[in-house]
Amino acid sequence: MPSMSIATSAVVASAAVLISPALVPHDPAERRAPAAPAAATRHAAFAKAAGEFGVPVSVLLGVSYLHSRWDSHAGLPSTSGGYGPMHLIDLPAARRDTALPYSLGNHHDDDREDPRGDPSRPMPRHRHQPPKHSPAAPRTLMRAAELTGIAPERLRRDPDANIRGGAALLADHQRALGGHKSANPADWYDAVAAYGGDPAGSTGFADEVFGTIQAGAARTTDDGFALRLGAHPALGAHPTLGADRDRSPRRYRLHRNPGPDRQRPKWGKKRRGGHGRHDRPARRDHRRRAECPESLACEWMPAAYARTGRKSYGNHDRLHEDRKIDYIVIHDTEGSFRGVPSMVNNPRYVSWHYTIRSEDGHVAQHVRTGDIAWHAGNWDINSRSIGIEHEGYLARGGTWYTEAMYRASAKLVRHLADEHDIPLDRAHIIGHDNVPGITPDRVRGMHVDPGPYWDWARFFALLDAPFTATGEEDATSVIIRPDFEHHQAQYTGCTRKQPARHCKRQGSASVWLHTEPSHHSPLVKDIGKHGGGASTHSVYDHAGRASTGQRYAVADRQGDWTAIWYLNQKAWFHNPASSPTALPADGPLVTPRAGLDSVKVYGRAYPEADAYPGGIRPEKLVPLQYTLRPGRRYTLGLTIRSAYTRAKSVDPREHVIIRGRLRYHQIQLGHRVMFVKADDVEIIDR
Q: What is the dihedral of CA 286, 291, 297, 298, to 10 degrees?
């Protein structure tokens, strides 16, 4: 067959959908998608808009996929205020539609959790004060309305109109950049980068768009339309997309610097007997580049590091030696990316390692991965983790995370996991909601982000580590895995003024856990979360639910129901063979050692008292309010040697890492992971 040009192949591949929708492949995870009444209709909207404004249909489809995966989301905005398949942004409307504050604050402002999580040096409460003048929020939807004459309300609610508005916006960017209406997708790179948003980050967005066009994509949308973008393997060979390309947006690309960035700082000598400005460590060169994979556009946005008092400093701990990193913790910001610069630049505030912007997947790094950020509310976890904040909200009116952000996060996490030898599983890649409380009184206030609307299955698929069955049907454990898009659990609490009101139904990564194999039975209880009270269906209450990717020991099976061991209870979830919500799995389990009536559970894996050197007060091994009882089994995630990082000085040379003889097993006891002493349990290797 004669070779075709990129432009011609785009039209042919797109036309194939109009001619034969039956040839569209379907993702197995979407096996219960509703049949579209006219599968070609949505694609016709893309083709018509592309023709009207002179945009290659492959470019229009690629841009839409990176924002919304072609979904309409029932007219609800994304976490950054974008509407419809083309993610046209209108923040004022998003505030009205969802009661979203779109604030410049952060979830650490709620005062329920000490982000540093170290009782030996409690962190003073400090509420972030947003700057008086912040960057203006983009309003691309209003620009699309000007270009097309379509009413803003229709652009928000009508997917076909939204697609037309997006095509007009792309053509407008192409004109503004001096481009022409080329049929060659490669000629639209700069316009796609501009569509993504800020030029410092959007080359990454454009690269992902063109990577999607090159590889192709196919899926059924949330409103039942089968769409397909044919693969264009020749696209990557086009000269305007090659390695020698030196046009304006790509000059912003920042990659990891393998030289000075990996060197340890040289600290100056202390002045004798003083605490003046000359005692502080020499300031590192913050012009360094971000620690990111080369395929990801990142910027270095350094967090503050300064004295805040005679014996206090912030907003993170720098280390003079390597640390072992066991976890990557996924957060959501509960605020806008626009507020991040002022937060990380405040030495009295908290810190985290990276922030990812919703609009285009732009990544900003704030704390070097070898240093300790204050983000998880548990000093033990902080000292062994990297924290990544994602622009978004746990649940405010049903907003959604963009594909661009999922992809950027997955690239970053995969890179960090490779760098630090972190296994890609849910024992190591955890949410803030999986971090244990440090003491019984701290359990209730631990944060619960990213919550049930974070698509863990999608995220791990992008990590190239999808959740799959690893055991037979009668396996001794299961991995929670509902079909996110079609598992629409009913929650309450998305509207703060009406907490009992039902949230709008949308995909969920969690399953409800009942006391009996019945939807009408109560949810299981969590004494740490509610004392003796009942668990609720609030989106902010994880006490009676399990999340995608978590592995639990099987306690029983009955018909369409499976029971797992969860906080010493049989917790039942609906798991019918026709529509399973879990996968059979093998793997090690733990149970109390013979002769023990109960086993203490801990939120930190700290050393025994005699491991601490003279002059350093040992950290108390405070058990949580939970225990392990005989006959119960729990999954084993990892085994670690006890350690405590003592960091109480602005000078990293004074930090001490204390390692003990005690070994701990991390187990999946409830929704959160916890620790038991290895000597108190026996391992059942199944």
A: -40
